[in-house]
Amino acid sequence: MVPDGVNQIHLMHRGRWLVRRTDLSDAECAIAQALEVVGDWWTLLVVRDIARGVHRFDALQRELGVSTKVLTERLKLLVSHGVLTKDPYSEHPPRYEYRLTAAGRGLLPVLVALQDWGSTWVLGDGTTSATTRPSSPEARRVHRLVGTPIPRLALPAADGTRVDPVSDTPFTVLYCYPGTAISGVSTNPPGWDQIPGATGCTLESCTYRDQLDEFTARGATVFGVSTQRGDEQAAFARAENIPFPLLSDAELALVTALRLPTFRVGSIDRLKRVTLIVDRDRIVRACLYPIQDVTGSVEDALALLDSLTQQVPQTASG
After folding, report:
1. Environment class of residue 291 by beta-carbon count within 10 Å: exposed (0-12), middle (13-18) or buried (19+)?
2. The CATH number of the domain covering residues in 7-105
C-alpha cells in the first residue's frame, strides 16, 4: 500500500500499466523526502568520495567504476538539490569540480552511521567495540590507507583556531582516540569501561606528551584527534599539560575523508584508536590498527618513524 501523499509514476508496457517508481517528493515524512534526494546507493557513494577529496568527474568515475550516464545523472541531481556545488576549473574544454555544500556536509553523519552500522551488524556480531580483530575487514580497510593522500582540511583545535591535520614538518603523527573525561566538563558514558578498546586515552596522550621530544627529533609533529568538542579537549589539555594540539573532528570531516573506523556511544560517533604517520606530501606512510597496547603503540610509532627516516633520509632531514 502506498502512503497518503505519495505519488506513483507508471509506465505503459505492452498495453499494461506497470509501476516504475514511487515519487516521494510530496510525502510529509522527512525520511521519505530525504530518500528522494539520496535514496539511490550510487548517490551516497558519490557524496562519500567527494568527502574523501575526489572532486573531478574523471576521478570520481575511476573511483566508483560507474558509467558516464549514471554519474552525470547523480551529480546533476545533487547539484539541483543544493548538496553539491559545480565549480568550473577549465573553460576550454569546460570542466568542473564538485564540492560539498553545507547541506552536503550535513550528510557526513549519515555516512558515518551507515559505516558504523555495516561494521557492527553486517561485518560484525552486533557488539559495540572501540577496536577490532587484526584480520577483520575493517582492519584491512584501514591499512589500505597507506599510500593514499589526506585532503586539505581545517579542524578546530583546543585553542579555538583551525588547524590542518597534516603539518609541514617531514612527518605528522595523527593518533586518533575515543575520548577523555574531565571532572566538571565531560564524563564517560555508562558502561565505558566495558567497551573493548575504549579506555586508555589519557594514558596514551600523556605518553605522547612525555616522549614528544623523541618525535620532534625525528622530524615529526604530533596531533591528537577525537570527535569531542573543543572545550572538552581544551580542559583535558590544561589538566594534563598536553603541549601539542588536540584537534576536534566533531564535524566528522577527517572521519569521512579517510573512512576512519568509529563506534557510537553516548549519542556521539567516536573514533576508534588508530595511529597514522603522514609525510609532508600528505601521503599516509604507515598505520597502526588495531591498537591493543596503548603505551606500546607510542613506541611502535617511533620505530615506524625510524624506519621511514632510513628509507627516505633526504625527506626526514627536510
Report:
1. buried
2. 1.10.10.10
